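Revision sheet: structure tokens.
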Amino acid sequence: MEIKRDRYLNRLIKRKWNGSIKVVTGIRRCGKSYLLFKLFRDHLISEGVRPHEIIAIALDDIRNKPLREPMALYENIVGSVKGDKCYVLLDEIQFVKGFEDVMNGLRQIPNIDIYVTGSNSKMLSKDILTEFRGRGDEIRVYPLSFSEFATAYPGKEEEAWRLYRTFGGMPELLTRADEEQKTAYLQNILKEVYLKDIKERNDIRLENELDLIVDFLCSSVGSLTNPTRISNALRTAKHSRIDDETVCRYLDLLEESFLFERSKRYDIRGKKYFDTPSKYYAADVGLRNARLNFRQQEETHIMENIIYTELRSRGFSIDVGIVENRSTKASITEYKQLEIDFVANKGSQRYYIQSAYRMPEREKEEQELRPFLSVRDSFKKIMIVGDDVHLKRDENGVVTIGIRQFLLDENSLDL
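Predicted:
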């Protein structure tokens, strides 16, 4: 079964021979190796690249353990280069200590085009430009989007949607026959792959507190929080003595492992960021649900998380929008900060997006639209609802679209 990842494949294709090291990042098991070693390699072959002009090394494979030594890897690649052009595909490059020097050395060879994957903090986007001396080009990969999942799923779309919002988009789920196996898979990789890796790699001493923070973030997806609120909550509910500074460090580690992403608040009119509080979203809604043993199935939070990861996978940066609203009653002026769930930015594009699980009633609709109407610019404003509705546009230019239409149509933001 081939799973199409055209969104990412096209990004790799557009970056061929651009002089940079293409760095494919993302949570483990989200499909980076499949993208690079199967889909991208197949593309190269279809374009006439000969197999011996592709050097592909999986560094997490025990058979390639000797190549985890920097000079051994460098010499192996240089000695394998044949022809005028050669593509080098390296999977899980973080297994090589000092990989930065190896990559920068290979980059000096004009007939080599380099692609690497990585799954931990050494491959964070904020570090790439430094580590590769300004020549790193990141392609962030997420678990399957709903459109990718639905295309690969053999059943009906309705059933695919039920499974997706419950178990998420980790590619290997498509090989698990029933819900019991899907549940066991998600709970196992979260505990034995992601969290175990964080604890061992960073010498975590307060392991229970890290677990509690993960639980807190999973329970409060889409809610504003900060280290102080989290530490206070753990002290009250779990009698923990963890301090704000340690909570902040653990939050950074969870972000660096790609398990969660942070979305900051942005003052739309003032054009400035607030450092705290922020919202945190899980990299995969299925991992979030499995962590909570599928007990807290709040559809509003699940839908908001799915929208967030969809926008991120489409290449948008996401902020929580804040806009000040002024109203006067009985000669008294009130100022309120209204929130827009997502301010999605990509280049010169911007979209304001609200998530509403149910199509709001008339009076509720006015409340939902108030943040939109308080924004004084012409960027598109979109309300995504959980109901299956025909796309509509009101007199204020606000577009309402159903969640599945939004997810299944790559161009849904521009309809």
